[in-house]
Amino acid sequence: MTNQDVIQLYENYQKHYPTKLNLDEFVTLLTFFPAIQVLIADGEIDQEEWMYVQHISKSMADTYKDEMPNKYELIDLQQTYETELAYILANISNWSAKFTFGLKSYLKEMPEVREIVFDVMYMFADASNDISKAEKDMIENLKQELELGG
Q1: Is 72 buried (19+), middle (13-18) or exposed (0-12) by CB count in 10 A?
Q2: CA distances from 66 to 62, 69, 71, 77, 135 (A)
Q3: Which end of the chain is more exposed for a tag (fewer CB within 10 A), N or C?
Q4: pLDDT tens digits, residue range 27-45?
Q5: pLDDT by residue (tens digit) across 99-144?
Q6: Which among 42, 123, 129, 132 has a CA at the least distance from the CA of 89?
Q7: Closest alpha carbon to 88 in 39, 137, 128
Q8: Average pLDDT over residues 73-78
């Protein structure tokens, strides 16, 4: 059961961007959003960071691989996630606070997801050579804002 704040966020997002994602797939995007925030903590996306965006897209799509035995459907979902992330990154000032609020609300109803959000955020931060001060600061802010453990 998805909470009302997430449903409202999804509906608002649909008004601004013609997403192909259903509500469940959107929730997956929402739970991976802190990884994106950490990735762009320095304020720009370089070529290496864009590769991480592609990895994040694949990871999100892979959460549905048991439900999508056809690899082409999975590839299509991965490309959809990549397109969604490109849109969000281009409009991050409009969506960042809204996604954080929606995720915080979702985590209050689904506290078991907190550890997954935390692990994914760290996994992608740690994947780069070093975690920068801006990334560390973003991780700390998100841990407090979203009430994540760790």
Answers
A1: exposed
A2: 8, 6, 10, 13, 33
A3: N
A4: 999 999 999 998 888 777 7
A5: 999 999 999 999 999 998 998 888 777 766 677 788 889 989 999 9
A6: 42
A7: 39
A8: 94
